[in-house]
Amino acid sequence: MAPAALAAACLLTVVAPPPSHAAGEAGAAAEPAATGPAVSATEPVSTPDAAEDLRALRAELARTRRAQAQAEARVAELEAILTQQDERRQSTAMEHTAQLNAAELRTREHKQRLLDAEARIRALEDQLAERDERIAALQEAAAAARETLRERLEAVRARLPAAEGGSLTAAQARRQAEADARYLKTLVEDALGIDNPRLWGDVRSAENALHRSQFLLARADNARTVYRVRPGDSLRQVSLLFYGTGERWTELFEANRHVLQAPEQLLPGLTLVVP
Questions:
Q1: Per the confidence metrics, is the pTM higher than 0.85?
Q2: Structure confidence at residue 160 (pLDDT)
Q3: First-to-last C-alpha distance (Å) of the chain
Q4: CA-based nearest residue to 271, from 134, 77, 262, 258
Protein backbone atom coordinates (compact mmCIF):
# COMPACT_ATOMS: atom_id res chain seq x y z
CA MET A 1 0.00 0.00 0.00
CA ALA A 2 1.26 3.53 -0.84
CA PRO A 3 2.30 5.82 2.05
CA ALA A 4 -0.50 8.38 1.34
CA ALA A 5 -3.20 5.69 1.24
CA LEU A 6 -1.85 4.17 4.46
CA ALA A 7 -2.02 7.55 6.20
CA ALA A 8 -5.60 8.15 5.00
CA ALA A 9 -6.70 4.74 6.25
CA CYS A 10 -5.17 5.42 9.66
CA LEU A 11 -6.85 8.85 9.83
CA LEU A 12 -10.26 7.46 8.94
CA THR A 13 -9.86 4.81 11.58
CA VAL A 14 -8.96 7.12 14.42
CA VAL A 15 -11.48 9.94 13.73
CA ALA A 16 -14.64 7.78 13.49
CA PRO A 17 -16.80 8.27 16.67
CA PRO A 18 -17.40 5.30 18.92
CA PRO A 19 -20.70 3.55 18.35
CA SER A 20 -21.75 3.83 22.04
CA HIS A 21 -21.63 7.63 22.07
CA ALA A 22 -23.53 7.87 18.83
CA ALA A 23 -26.21 5.58 20.20
CA GLY A 24 -26.35 7.61 23.44
CA GLU A 25 -26.77 10.83 21.56
CA ALA A 26 -29.49 9.29 19.42
CA GLY A 27 -31.27 8.08 22.59
CA ALA A 28 -30.88 11.51 24.19
CA ALA A 29 -32.33 13.19 21.12
CA ALA A 30 -35.17 10.74 20.85
CA GLU A 31 -36.06 10.76 24.54
CA PRO A 32 -37.41 14.37 24.74
CA ALA A 33 -39.54 13.69 21.69
CA ALA A 34 -41.17 10.82 23.53
CA THR A 35 -41.51 12.29 27.08
CA GLY A 36 -41.70 16.06 26.75
CA PRO A 37 -42.07 19.05 24.55
CA ALA A 38 -39.72 19.63 21.63
CA VAL A 39 -36.42 21.41 22.35
CA SER A 40 -34.93 23.95 19.88
CA ALA A 41 -31.83 22.84 17.99
CA THR A 42 -30.06 26.08 18.86
CA GLU A 43 -30.73 25.82 22.51
CA PRO A 44 -27.63 24.86 24.55
CA VAL A 45 -27.60 21.59 26.35
CA SER A 46 -26.22 21.75 29.87
CA THR A 47 -27.08 18.40 31.25
CA PRO A 48 -24.36 16.45 33.09
CA ASP A 49 -24.43 13.68 30.48
CA ALA A 50 -23.79 16.13 27.64
CA ALA A 51 -20.79 17.59 29.45
CA GLU A 52 -19.44 14.17 30.07
CA ASP A 53 -19.92 13.29 26.41
CA LEU A 54 -18.17 16.48 25.39
CA ARG A 55 -15.21 15.71 27.56
CA ALA A 56 -15.11 12.20 26.15
CA LEU A 57 -15.22 13.53 22.61
CA ARG A 58 -12.45 15.99 23.33
CA ALA A 59 -10.34 13.25 24.86
CA GLU A 60 -11.06 11.03 21.88
CA LEU A 61 -10.12 13.90 19.55
CA ALA A 62 -6.86 14.37 21.38
CA ARG A 63 -6.17 10.66 21.14
CA THR A 64 -7.09 10.76 17.47
CA ARG A 65 -4.71 13.65 16.84
CA ARG A 66 -1.93 11.84 18.69
CA ALA A 67 -2.66 8.70 16.67
CA GLN A 68 -2.68 10.76 13.50
CA ALA A 69 0.67 12.30 14.42
CA GLN A 70 2.05 8.83 15.19
CA ALA A 71 0.62 7.53 11.93
CA GLU A 72 2.17 10.40 10.01
CA ALA A 73 5.49 9.83 11.75
CA ARG A 74 5.27 6.12 10.90
CA VAL A 75 4.40 7.01 7.32
CA ALA A 76 7.41 9.31 7.14
CA GLU A 77 9.58 6.59 8.66
CA LEU A 78 8.27 4.06 6.15
CA GLU A 79 8.80 6.51 3.32
CA ALA A 80 12.38 7.04 4.50
CA ILE A 81 12.90 3.28 4.67
CA LEU A 82 11.44 2.88 1.20
CA THR A 83 13.66 5.69 -0.08
CA GLN A 84 16.72 4.04 1.45
CA GLN A 85 15.70 0.71 -0.02
CA ASP A 86 15.21 2.32 -3.44
CA GLU A 87 18.61 3.99 -3.18
CA ARG A 88 20.19 0.70 -2.16
CA ARG A 89 18.45 -1.09 -5.03
CA GLN A 90 19.59 1.57 -7.47
CA SER A 91 23.14 1.44 -6.09
CA THR A 92 23.13 -2.36 -6.29
CA ALA A 93 21.71 -2.25 -9.80
CA MET A 94 24.37 0.26 -10.87
CA GLU A 95 27.07 -1.85 -9.26
CA HIS A 96 25.78 -4.98 -10.98
CA THR A 97 25.57 -3.11 -14.28
CA ALA A 98 29.15 -1.92 -13.90
CA GLN A 99 30.27 -5.45 -13.06
CA LEU A 100 28.37 -6.79 -16.07
CA ASN A 101 29.92 -4.17 -18.35
CA ALA A 102 33.38 -4.99 -16.99
CA ALA A 103 32.73 -8.70 -17.50
CA GLU A 104 31.57 -8.07 -21.07
CA LEU A 105 34.66 -5.95 -21.72
CA ARG A 106 36.91 -8.69 -20.36
CA THR A 107 35.05 -11.23 -22.48
CA ARG A 108 35.60 -9.15 -25.60
CA GLU A 109 39.27 -8.75 -24.71
CA HIS A 110 39.60 -12.50 -24.19
CA LYS A 111 37.88 -13.17 -27.50
CA GLN A 112 40.17 -10.70 -29.28
CA ARG A 113 43.24 -12.27 -27.68
CA LEU A 114 41.94 -15.68 -28.72
CA LEU A 115 41.46 -14.46 -32.28
CA ASP A 116 44.96 -12.96 -32.27
CA ALA A 117 46.39 -16.21 -30.92
CA GLU A 118 44.58 -18.22 -33.59
CA ALA A 119 45.89 -15.84 -36.25
CA ARG A 120 49.43 -16.24 -34.92
CA ILE A 121 49.00 -20.01 -34.84
CA ARG A 122 47.84 -19.99 -38.46
CA ALA A 123 50.79 -17.79 -39.41
CA LEU A 124 53.19 -20.14 -37.61
CA GLU A 125 51.58 -23.13 -39.29
CA ASP A 126 52.02 -21.43 -42.67
CA GLN A 127 55.65 -20.69 -41.80
CA LEU A 128 56.18 -24.28 -40.72
CA ALA A 129 54.60 -25.56 -43.92
CA GLU A 130 56.79 -23.21 -45.96
CA ARG A 131 59.84 -24.30 -43.99
CA ASP A 132 58.94 -27.95 -44.54
CA GLU A 133 58.62 -27.28 -48.25
CA ARG A 134 62.02 -25.55 -48.27
CA ILE A 135 63.54 -28.42 -46.30
CA ALA A 136 62.04 -30.93 -48.73
CA ALA A 137 63.37 -28.89 -51.66
CA LEU A 138 66.79 -28.65 -50.01
CA GLN A 139 66.78 -32.36 -49.32
CA GLU A 140 65.93 -33.07 -52.94
CA ALA A 141 68.63 -30.65 -54.08
CA ALA A 142 71.10 -32.25 -51.67
CA ALA A 143 70.20 -35.71 -52.93
CA ALA A 144 70.63 -34.54 -56.53
CA ALA A 145 73.93 -32.89 -55.60
CA ARG A 146 75.11 -36.06 -53.88
CA GLU A 147 74.15 -38.08 -56.93
CA THR A 148 75.98 -35.63 -59.18
CA LEU A 149 79.03 -35.73 -56.93
CA ARG A 150 78.89 -39.51 -56.89
CA GLU A 151 78.76 -39.61 -60.66
CA ARG A 152 81.61 -37.14 -60.94
CA LEU A 153 83.59 -39.11 -58.38
CA GLU A 154 83.00 -42.27 -60.32
CA ALA A 155 84.09 -40.47 -63.46
CA VAL A 156 87.24 -39.24 -61.72
CA ARG A 157 87.92 -42.66 -60.28
CA ALA A 158 87.45 -44.13 -63.72
CA ARG A 159 90.21 -41.81 -64.93
CA LEU A 160 92.59 -42.67 -62.13
CA PRO A 161 94.62 -45.85 -61.90
CA ALA A 162 94.05 -48.27 -59.04
CA ALA A 163 97.33 -47.26 -57.44
CA GLU A 164 95.93 -43.75 -56.94
CA GLY A 165 92.57 -44.84 -55.55
CA GLY A 166 90.75 -45.03 -58.86
CA SER A 167 89.31 -47.85 -60.89
CA LEU A 168 91.07 -47.24 -64.21
CA THR A 169 93.04 -50.24 -65.51
CA ALA A 170 95.86 -50.15 -68.01
CA ALA A 171 93.70 -52.02 -70.51
CA GLN A 172 90.92 -49.44 -70.23
CA ALA A 173 93.39 -46.56 -70.60
CA ARG A 174 94.97 -48.25 -73.63
CA ARG A 175 91.60 -48.71 -75.33
CA GLN A 176 90.71 -45.07 -74.74
CA ALA A 177 94.08 -43.90 -76.06
CA GLU A 178 93.65 -46.10 -79.13
CA ALA A 179 90.24 -44.57 -79.84
CA ASP A 180 91.59 -41.04 -79.33
CA ALA A 181 94.53 -41.75 -81.67
CA ARG A 182 92.21 -43.11 -84.34
CA TYR A 183 89.99 -40.01 -84.11
CA LEU A 184 93.05 -37.72 -84.28
CA LYS A 185 94.36 -39.48 -87.40
CA THR A 186 90.98 -39.07 -89.10
CA LEU A 187 90.83 -35.36 -88.31
CA VAL A 188 94.37 -34.78 -89.55
CA GLU A 189 93.66 -36.58 -92.82
CA ASP A 190 90.49 -34.50 -93.30
CA ALA A 191 92.29 -31.23 -92.49
CA LEU A 192 95.32 -31.69 -94.76
CA GLY A 193 95.42 -28.99 -97.39
CA ILE A 194 92.39 -27.19 -95.93
CA ASP A 195 92.68 -23.75 -94.37
CA ASN A 196 89.88 -24.09 -91.86
CA PRO A 197 90.65 -22.70 -88.36
CA ARG A 198 87.68 -24.47 -86.83
CA LEU A 199 88.77 -27.84 -88.22
CA TRP A 200 92.34 -27.37 -87.02
CA GLY A 201 90.93 -26.35 -83.65
CA ASP A 202 89.22 -29.74 -83.50
CA VAL A 203 92.58 -31.33 -84.32
CA ARG A 204 94.21 -29.57 -81.37
CA SER A 205 91.39 -30.73 -79.07
CA ALA A 206 91.85 -34.30 -80.27
CA GLU A 207 95.62 -34.06 -79.64
CA ASN A 208 94.95 -32.92 -76.07
CA ALA A 209 92.44 -35.72 -75.51
CA LEU A 210 95.02 -38.29 -76.70
CA HIS A 211 97.65 -36.70 -74.47
CA ARG A 212 95.39 -37.15 -71.43
CA SER A 213 94.60 -40.77 -72.33
CA GLN A 214 98.29 -41.62 -72.83
CA PHE A 215 99.20 -39.87 -69.61
CA LEU A 216 96.63 -41.99 -67.71
CA LEU A 217 97.99 -45.11 -69.38
CA ALA A 218 101.50 -44.16 -68.32
CA ARG A 219 100.34 -43.80 -64.73
CA ALA A 220 98.41 -47.06 -64.83
CA ASP A 221 101.42 -48.90 -66.30
CA ASN A 222 103.93 -47.13 -64.03
CA ALA A 223 105.66 -45.75 -67.13
CA ARG A 224 108.30 -43.06 -66.92
CA THR A 225 106.40 -40.26 -68.64
CA VAL A 226 104.81 -39.24 -71.96
CA TYR A 227 106.12 -37.30 -74.94
CA ARG A 228 104.25 -35.32 -77.61
CA VAL A 229 105.76 -35.86 -81.07
CA ARG A 230 107.07 -32.81 -82.94
CA PRO A 231 107.56 -32.43 -86.68
CA GLY A 232 110.71 -34.33 -87.79
CA ASP A 233 110.83 -36.62 -84.73
CA SER A 234 111.56 -40.36 -84.96
CA LEU A 235 111.52 -43.18 -82.46
CA ARG A 236 115.34 -43.23 -82.45
CA GLN A 237 115.47 -39.53 -81.58
CA VAL A 238 112.94 -40.01 -78.76
CA SER A 239 114.92 -43.01 -77.50
CA LEU A 240 118.08 -40.97 -77.55
CA LEU A 241 116.35 -38.14 -75.69
CA PHE A 242 115.12 -40.28 -72.82
CA TYR A 243 117.56 -43.22 -72.72
CA GLY A 244 120.72 -41.68 -74.08
CA THR A 245 120.78 -44.16 -76.93
CA GLY A 246 118.71 -44.60 -80.07
CA GLU A 247 118.79 -48.38 -79.83
CA ARG A 248 115.86 -48.60 -77.43
CA TRP A 249 113.37 -47.29 -79.98
CA THR A 250 111.84 -50.79 -80.11
CA GLU A 251 110.73 -50.40 -76.50
CA LEU A 252 108.97 -47.21 -77.44
CA PHE A 253 107.29 -48.91 -80.38
CA GLU A 254 106.09 -51.87 -78.29
CA ALA A 255 104.70 -49.56 -75.59
CA ASN A 256 102.75 -47.56 -78.19
CA ARG A 257 101.49 -50.21 -80.63
CA HIS A 258 97.92 -49.14 -79.77
CA VAL A 259 98.57 -45.76 -81.42
CA LEU A 260 101.32 -46.69 -83.98
CA GLN A 261 100.82 -48.94 -86.97
CA ALA A 262 104.49 -48.73 -88.02
CA PRO A 263 107.67 -47.34 -86.39
CA GLU A 264 108.13 -44.70 -89.05
CA GLN A 265 104.57 -43.37 -88.92
CA LEU A 266 105.03 -40.70 -86.25
CA LEU A 267 102.25 -38.15 -86.60
CA PRO A 268 103.13 -34.69 -85.23
CA GLY A 269 100.96 -34.00 -82.17
CA LEU A 270 100.80 -37.70 -81.28
CA THR A 271 101.58 -38.49 -77.63
CA LEU A 272 103.84 -41.46 -76.85
CA VAL A 273 104.12 -43.38 -73.60
CA VAL A 274 107.76 -43.57 -72.48
CA PRO A 275 108.19 -46.81 -70.50
A1: no
A2: 66
A3: 137
A4: 258
